[in-house]
Each structure stands twice: as C-alpha cells, then as structure tokens.
Amino acid sequence: MTKIRTCLFGLGHMGKNHLRVLQEDSRYELVAVIDPVTDSLPATAQAVPLYKHLPDDLAFELAVVAAPTELHYSLVTGLLQRNHHVFVEKPAASTQSQAEELVALAQSKNLKLAVGNIERCNPVVGALRKVIGSGILGRLVHLNGLRAGGFPRNVKPGNNVILDLGVHELDLFRMILGPLDIVHGIGHSTQMSSIYDAAEISVRSKQGVTGTVHVNWLTPQRMRSIRVTGSEGLCLVDYIQQTCEVFGNGLKSKDSIFASLPWQTDAQGLDTVQIPVVAKESLKEQLDQLHLYLSGKDHVLAIGAELIESVSLVEQAEKQVASAHVLPFHDPQSERR
Known about the structure:
- By secondary structure, this protein is α/β, with parallel strands linked by helices.
- The mean pLDDT is 93.
- It has helices at 13-24, 72-81, 96-108, 123-134, 161-177, 282-294, 304-323, and strands at 4-9, 28-34, 50-51, 62-65, 85-89, 113-116, 140-148, 180-188, 198-205, 210-216, 223-230, 234-238, 243-249, 264-265, 270-274, 326-327.
- 29% of the residues lie in helices and 27% in strands.
- The chain has 7 helices and 16 strands.
- The chain folds into 2 domains: 4-117, Rossmann fold, CATH 3.40.50.720; 120-283 and 314-323, Dihydrodipicolinate Reductase, domain 2 (2-Layer Sandwich).
- α2 (72-81) runs parallel beside α3, α3 (96-108) packs antiparallel against α7 (304-323) and α5 (161-177) crosses α7.
C-alpha cells in the first residue's frame, strides 16, 4: 500500500500529539515538520527533518495543520494553492467567510479539506449515535454538553473558552441535530478582563430540539460529557472514560437493538444499561477517518458545509457573548478601596 506523504505544520501541544500518532501509523509517511519557533523534535520522536519554513521543493500530498488558530486561514490557503490536501486543527478558520473561501478553493482545485473536531472520532460518540438512531430514547428533547477544566498554557489575545472548548460541543450538537441556531449566550471573564474563560450557550435545531453548552477553563478537574434527554429515556456519555449509559422506565422490555444487553432494574423500576464501547484513542481514530476520506470512502469528519457551520456556530456564539451577554472581569480588591 502506498503511504501518504505528509507534512506537519506546528509543533505546539496538539502538534506534538499529531507527530506521535502520525509516526505510529504505517499508512502515513511523515516527511517533514514545519515550525518557525521550535529548534528540536521531542526526545521520543523518530528523526524527521524540522524546518523553520516550508522548502519550495518539498514533495508531499497531505498537510496536517496544527498552527495557532490565527494562522489557519493564510496557511491553509497557501497549501491549497500549492495543490496539497489539508487536514486542519479546529477551528478551520477565524470567521465563516474565511471558512467559505477555504472550502470553495479546495473544491475548485478538487482537493480534500477537513477540520479536526476530535470528538467526532471518539468511539463513545459512535455509541451515542447508535442509541439515538435506534429510537429507544423516543423523540429528542434536549442536549446538555459539559466541557470544563484545562486552562491553556498560553492564552493569546483573541482566544477564549468558546473558541478553545465550545467548538467541540457545538460541532457535536450540529452533527447530531443538523443545522442549529444560537439563541443565547453568556460569559465570564474571571482571570483576564479581555478574555472570557467560562460561557453558557443555548442552541435550537430546525426541528425544535434545544441544547445547552457549558464550557470553562476554571474547573480543577477535566470534565467532558453530554446528556441527551428524549421523551422516553436518557443517555449519559463521558468522553474521557468513553462510557455510554441509557436510563428509562420500561426500556428493558422494548424491542430494540439493545434488548440482549444485561439491563439492570432498580427498586423504582428504572432500567439501566451500559452500551458497549471499544475504547480507542480519538486521535488514532481520527487518522482512520482521514484515511477513509482521502480514499473516497464514508467517514465522520467535518468537511464542506459542516466545516463552514462549525466555524459559523463559534462565531455566532462569540458575538452573542461579547455583544450583550458577557459578565465582565470582577476584581474583589476594588470593593475594598
């Protein structure tokens, strides 16, 4: 099998993760790493050329972009113009108009362009989609997403918790529910006056299903979960533990694809079951999905209209919070003066 010659752009936190999984995957041949500020590869990495800038004569098919968000648009544009397929870390661009331009450019040159919304590739999300698709929850009513903890090592101007964390939940809500509207947003700036580090975002689907996303950098413990409420049942998913549980009254006796699983019933008649999930690192599954996409096969990556909407939802949420619903930085010392 011919390996995909790949060049990695950016060797920050996520870039190092991409470096590791690319070098562990025999389907990809990492031919170079480009980073203008890094002088050496991690000690655990296999030897590969490291350049400050992209050499004009470097031959490769696929670019994996893990550079800072503010560089995504210009970097991806240049790579597409050089006729390279591109996989770019989330968000694909800073604005909806930029995302539209990138998608149009890729399509005009018959190139592949996808964004790394990683939770799409979490095996537990596959289990959740199977639960929803089975109809065992009844009519979907509300989704609640929680993504908390993990203050970034370096918060740059222009970054915020919606751009960093909220993008994942908003993209998953869109993946599950279809096109969404942002109906409300509120945020807090507790550490720096110009950057909000906690936010609550409300959404609504075209079918009337609602959703709430809570994200923050403040919680000491990393928490990543989604709760899906239906008219007949509830599904709880933990992204980190990769667990998927279904709860409801009378679900055990339903004729469903989960009927043969070991259901438990408590004293109050509540039925509960664990949906089987084959644990796997999401980044490695993401490479599997990328390979399917590059091979012209079915995949779960966000491309085309979904890539554009993943950027648009973040942009809309930021505007909601920034324009009218942000709770500004509060300095307790000011009350003592």
